[in-house]
Amino acid sequence: MSQATQGNPALPPVLMTSELGSFARATIVERKPEIIRRVLADHSYPPDTVAAFAAFAKEIAGSDVQPPAASASDPEAPFWREQWTQYAGRTWLDLPWFFAEAYFYRRLLEAVGYFGPGPWAGRDPFAPQKRVQESAAIDQVSEIWPQICDSAAETRFTLLLHACLWGNRADLSNYTVRERAVGTSAADREHILIDDTAAAQILLESGLREVAFINDNVGADSLFDLALADFLLELGWAARVTFHLKDRPFFVSDAMPDDIRDMVRQLQTCGRAGLTALGERLSVALASGALRLAAEPFWSRSLCFADIPAVLHAQLATADLVILKGDVNYRRLLGDRHWPYTARLDEIAASFPQPFLAVRTLKGEIIVGLRPGVADILAASDPTWLINGKRGIIHLVGRSQPRRRKESEYGQTAAG
What we know:
This protein is α/β, with parallel strands linked by helices. It folds into 2 domains: 23-111, Transcription Elongation Factor S-II, Chain A; 141-397, Rossmann fold. It is built from 16 helices and 7 strands. Strands 1-7-6-5-2-3-4 form a 7-stranded mixed beta sheet. Helix 5 crosses helix 11 and helix 11 (257-268) packs across helix 12. The protein is globular, with a radius of gyration of 21 Å.
């Protein structure tokens, strides 16, 4: 939750874990204990770590939220102590949802000894799951890669951008979403509730100095981010691409610089000609600086974009387009608040460097920019439409090009 907007009565309330029947509450009651179980299953941790996890799981189940451990080796420790102070005395089922999720990962890293000293210092507890996700993504993408490569530039851009969207469909922190992570069919396109593909293409093909991605997950998600970055560089639609990544493990599958480098290495050695060539081009782009990997502590903090540090804001403002991937970045744009479905994203996120392109599949109870009545139609036909990953958005803010209008299964298009 944003500190800058926390006490403003004119703003909608933040999503809370105390909301009965909400997805926010289910993440604490169901998903977080499952994440703990999977991490324990993936590693042979010593007894004290297992005991720490047991205590943590018990705390989540009903005890007051405990303070973060002091860590001389981690400069982020004072930040988390300050954040926790605001909610001392509350349980995990009485917290702003975004704080609860981000703080969970801070505490999980403490439990596994990530901040050291010791043999587990700096070791990603989610690495085994990430590597499996990456290998599966390469197998999956190889099936459609020839179709993408053989397409004309305009068609290839649409395929890659939509693959970036649907690659965001499944992440390792959300076990409720089981759908295939690559979608290229007409049915998938009908599930894009806000589709600014055409306007994004007009902006990009004009030739930009820099495109910045604020990335989300490993696997198909980051693989298609890399493929789109390669396309933009190869066609000269961008002179440079910057990936903004997590500086530490976060939300299980969120990508860090080493994860991206590992993905490129896997592409180079996968033995599939087209994907191997992609890996080689990406390796050259990384070496030359045409593709840059950046990591800042902000991306693994419990803050929204209203509280973005001035230095990072200035870095993003140098890009001609910022592509924000996934639910967490979208939640940051909206302050993780219960905005009306018809609210305007350009007004809510007016302080964010523009233009930006929000690309996310719906896995959280928050969305804006819809026309009146669309949410009611969706809820009537699919009660879990906000969280099941079936639908997505490609929402451009900051340019006046008209959106490609299309008739969808809902009988009307999305709002501007």
